[in-house]
Structure formats: structure tokens, C-alpha cells
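Researcher: Quick test of sequence recovery. C-alpha cells follow.
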């Protein structure tokens, strides 16, 4: 940690008492302003705020891809598969999303929901059935949960879904 980071960390609470102007949100953004006296509201204009008492957040208004990452799973008929899903979502109601999930990790929350849906759907169906309907089944599974949080799922893409032979390498730690 440098001396300038230390000084700015010490002075940050003092600087949060000074008013700031939050710029007008871009066409592809939601601007949510939360005050302790008025709650959270969506704005389309610039906002004069004091960071110590007013919280300002930006959410994407356009489509937003969220990659869930690779998963190694076993289907209901015992076939080992590797799957990778990407959900293309957009925030329909940022205030509802904000009440469900904190601002800084909403993308991670959606990614975990997608991972859970992929696991639940793939582990409960046979591989032959999943080859045709996997994306639709996962998307149907996700729609209700995401809509409760103000997110609309535009499309779910199962980028990789293939039978595999899992190979795990366990390494013994050296020395204790």
C-alpha cells in the first residue's frame, strides 16, 4: 500500500461529505438514486448528491451477457457431460433487482442461478432427451426466478454440451 492510497483512505470519509454531481446516465444505463428519506428511485437526469447520505448506482439497460463457466456433470442416465452456458439478460426493473441482490454482485448472482439451473436440468434428464431440449428446459427453469428480481432473460445459449470422460488429478502437498 502506497502512502497516497493510505492518505486517500483516511480522507475519503471527509470527502464524502462534499456534494457531487452524478452525470446523466447514458442511453444504455439505468441510474438508481437511493436516499434515506425517499428510498430508491430511477432517474434519467443528472443528480446532485452527497455520497455520505445518498447512494448512486448504475445498471445496464441493454442486453448483458453472463457466462456461467464450464461444469462437469452426470445426467440421469449416468452420462458424464461438460456444459458451458451463457445467459443474455437485461435489467427490466433495477429497483426490484436492487432489493433482491446487492449492486456489486448481481452478475455473480445471475451466474450462480444459471449454474444451478444447468446442474438441476442436466442431472434430472437423460442425455438423449437433453440433446434436443436442453436450452429450452434451462431457460424455462430460470425465467421465474430471474423475473422475480427484475431481470428478463433474452436468450440462454448452451455453448458447449458434450459427453466427456472426466479426469481428475490430485496432487499430494509437499512437506508439512
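Model:
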Amino acid at each position: 500500500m502506497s502512502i497516497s492510497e493510505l492518505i486517500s483512505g483516511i480522507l475519503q470519509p471527509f470527502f464524502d461529505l462534499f456534494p457531487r454531481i452524478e452525470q446523466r446516465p447514458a442511453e444504455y444505463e439505468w441510474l438508481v438514486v437511493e436516499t434515506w428519506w425517499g428510498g430508491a428511485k430511477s432517474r434519467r437526469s443528472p443528480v446532485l448528491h452527497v455520497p455520505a447520505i445518498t447512494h448512486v448506482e448504475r445498471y445496464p439497460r441493454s442486453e448483458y451477457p453472463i457466462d456461467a463457466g464450464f461444469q462437469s456433470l452426470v445426467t440421469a442416465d449416468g452420462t458424464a457431460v461438460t456444459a458451458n452456458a451463457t445467459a443474455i439478460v437485461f435489467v427490466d426493473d433495477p429497483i426490484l433487482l436492487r432489493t433482491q441482490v446487492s449492486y456489486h454482485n448481481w452478475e455473480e448472482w445471475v451466474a450462480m442461478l444459471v449454474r444451478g439451473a444447468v446442474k438441476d436440468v442436466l442431472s434430472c434428464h437423460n442425455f438423449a432427451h437433453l440433446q434436443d431440449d436442453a436450452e429450452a428446459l434451462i431457460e424455462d427453469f430460470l425465467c421465474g426466478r430471474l423475473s422475480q428480481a427484475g431481470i428478463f432473460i433474452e436468450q440462454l445459449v448452451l455453448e458447449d454440451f458434450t459427453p466427456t470422460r472426466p479426469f481428475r488429478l490430485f496432487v499430494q502437498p509437499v512437506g508439512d
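Residues 3-60 form one domain.
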